[in-house]
Write a structure and sequence with these properties.
- The structure is a homodimer.
- Chain A is of the alpha+beta class.
- Chain A has 2 domains: 5-74, Arc Repressor Mutant, subunit A (Orthogonal Bundle), CATH 1.10.10.10; 82-159, Dna Ligase, domain 1 (2-Layer Sandwich), CATH 3.30.1490.
- In chain A, 38% of the residues lie in helices and 17% in strands.
- Chain A has 6 helices and 5 strands; from the N terminus they run H-H-H-H-E-E-E-E-H-E-H.
- In chain A, helix 2 (28-38) packs across helix 4 (62-74) and helix 3 (46-54) crosses helix 4 (62-74).
- At the A-B interface, helix 2, helix 3, strand 1, strand 2 and strand 3 of A face helix 2, helix 3, strand 1, strand 2 and strand 3 of B.
- The structure holds a DNA duplex.
DNA sequence: TCCTAATTAACAATGATTCTCAGGTAGGAG
DNA sequence: CTCCTACCTGAGAATCATTGTTAATTAGGA
């Protein structure tokens, strides 16, 4: 599942357009960091990105990598796997269940739905591994937030 | 979405049975920690659990909470939201897509599947908030791990 | 009741991520 | 094309979540 050259160019185009639209400077470092992430078929962490970028920009600091990644995140140009940073959250519900995740406050609520426990897996997934079960995340706005901050913008990191 | 008393008793039953089966001592602290988590309708982190338990057991230490939670995790009595701890991983793919997650090495691979982007949301979810989109995680064993460690056991925390 | 291995609390240590600040640079104004 | 300034970066210290170490404590079988 390598990233296709065409796809890579698309992503880089979006990136430059995105920075410009936001009135943010297009620096050498930002370009290299984004390119590195955009061409990774897996999902590296900040340290891995930093290590790779250092091959070409030996003085880049891990700090800059973090700052850049969170900036791109705020601009909606990249995302994180799972809830970004914050401390690990625990769940005593061992029955199969699914989550409603609020995109504003990122609170997470359980619900059950037997149909979601074993969805029909598309054919292409066989190339990745042996599926055992499925889990669904419904993203939306929770009742609380709908009332409290009807138009909150993104960048709802931390907590 | 409060936890029902019956459900709580079930969970506590599982907990005690689980510890006994594993030959692990049932201490006051472990009981209080589990009870606290089991009766939370949301998904607290270790610190929140610790704070709540301290109301009843003022000397409990945060480390004990962590150790207990990971122990219960290894015994399969609780789970974590998203990949437990480890560093944040980034994703430059902004198109809607889904993830295949390996339950052994927790590597995560992207795939797309338009049907999964907007699943039919069950009725009960309306009580939680306003859904916008859906995302599916397929859990299974990746090709790599199937070859390398055909029978790996759970507790595959860290990285 | 006694004994011992399992468990705990306190505190030090680690690893990820963020802050502070002084120097550097993109890119619009002239 | 050069200058200027606000935005960026690198370095190192600081912070926060989580884990390791150790001596004292306790569950629960003998």
């Amino acid at each position: 599942m390598k990233i296709l050259p065409q796809e890579l160019l698309d992503r880089i185009g979006c990136f430059e357009k995105g920075l410009q639209r936001a009135g943010v400077k297009i620096t050498h470092q930002r370009q290299e960091i984004f390119r590195e992430l955009a061409q990774s078929p897996d999902h590296p962490d900040a340290e891995m990105v930093c290590r790779s970028v250092r091959k070409r920009v030996p003085t880049i600091s891990l700090d800059t990598v973090y700052r850049t990644l969170w900036l791109l995140m705020d601009l909606g140009l990249i995302s994180t796997l799972g809830a970004s940073r914050a401390s690990t959250r625990f769940d005593a519900n061992t029955k199969p269940h699914h989550h409603f995740v609020c995109s504003r406050c990122s609170s997470t609520l359980d619900f059950s739905c037997p149909e979601f426990d074993h969805l029909d897996i598309p054919h292409g997934v066989k190339a990745l591994g042996y599926p055992e079960k499925t889990r669904v995340e419904v993203l939306g706005v929770c009742l609380q937030c709908k009332k409290t901050r009807p138009k909150a913008h993104n960048s709802e990191r931390r907590e």
